[in-house]
Design a protein that fits this description.
By secondary structure, the protein is α/β, with parallel strands linked by helices. The protein has helices at about 15-25, 60-65, 95-120, 140-160, 190-205, 215-220, 225-230, and strands at about 5-10, 30-35, 50, 75, 125-130, 165-170, 210. The chain has one domain (about 5-235): NAD(P)-binding Rossmann-like Domain (Rossmann fold). About 40% of the residues lie in helices and about 15% in strands. The chain has a 7-stranded parallel sheet with strand order 3-2-1-4-5-6-7, sandwiched between helices. β1, α1 (about 15-25) and β2 (about 30-35) form a beta-alpha-beta unit. The radius of gyration is 17 Å and the shape is globular.
């Protein structure tokens, strides 16, 4: 699929990685770039069309899908992290909120736009995942669980959408230099580089993008014993 001439919708496009996705699409010649955010007034980049979109609101998602019937590329970028442990958080509220956005919100967009993509020749769907789709960190255990669920979702919808010719791309990254990873003092990848690798993959029709060594190392360790991924388990 060519980015040039495409009609794209990016969720969570008002800052960070979502903003980088939207900018990259404009730079690559997309015909229209819809930039979704809960507050469209926070979207000020030239060349994009601000769209009010809360992906956790089913009615709003359905309304946007009805209005944006020309979309050929969906980029599910919107996500949240509450940096919560599964067992030490005071309540299950952080886990529920992360699952509501990162899993159910993504699913809602996929369901709403699958028919749109089909009518427009198949197109492509990109889900922004994480290295934590492959492994868990106890400090962000509930976020890890939500991204693992989103990875499984991505694999399942890839199979379901194959018949209509929709390319489904899962993007995995470790630490991206955005607000979400602001407190992390480890090497980070630029959001612009993630966007570039992602859209290179779309154009090459590659189904998975491992944007950094964190992701490639974690993916390669999945077939090994658990103490390879989790050295703390070694006795």
């Amino acid at each position: 699929m060519k980015i040039s001439g495409s009609v794209a919708l990016v969720t969570g496009a008002n800052r960070g990685l979502g903003r980088a996705f939207a900018r990259a699409l404009v730079e690559r010649g997309a015909h229209t770039v819809y930039a979704g955010a809960r507050d469209p007034n926070t979207i000020t980049d030239p060349g994009v069309v601000p769209i009010k979109l809360d992906i956790t609101d089913p009615d709003e998602v359905a309304d946007v899908a009805r209005r944006l019937g020309d979309v050929t590329l969906l980029v599910n970028n919107a996500g949240v992290s509450h940096a919560a442990s599964l067992l030490l958080a005071e309540t299950q509220d952080p886990a529920r909120a992360e699952m509501e956005t990162n899993y159910f919100g993504t699913l809602s967009l996929c369901r709403a736009f699958a028919p749109v993509l089909a009518r427009n020749g198949g197109g492509a769907l990109v889900n922004m995942l994480s290295v934590l789709s492959f492994m868990a960190l106890p400090q962000v255990g509930s976020y890890s669980a939500s991204k693992a669920a989103a990875w499984s979702l991505t694999n399942a919808i890839r199979l379901e959408l194959a018949a209509q010719g929709t390319l489904v791309v899962g993007v995995h990254a470790g630490f991206i230099d955005t607000d979400m990873a602001a407190r992390v003092e480890l090497p980070k990848i630029r959001p612009e580089d993630v966007a570039a690798q992602t859209f290179d993959a779309v154009e090459a029709e590659r189904m998975e993008v491992l944007v950094d060594t964190y992701s490639t190392d974690a993916k390669s360790a999945l077939s090994a014993d658990l103490d390879v991924l989790y050295p703390a388990l070694r006795r």
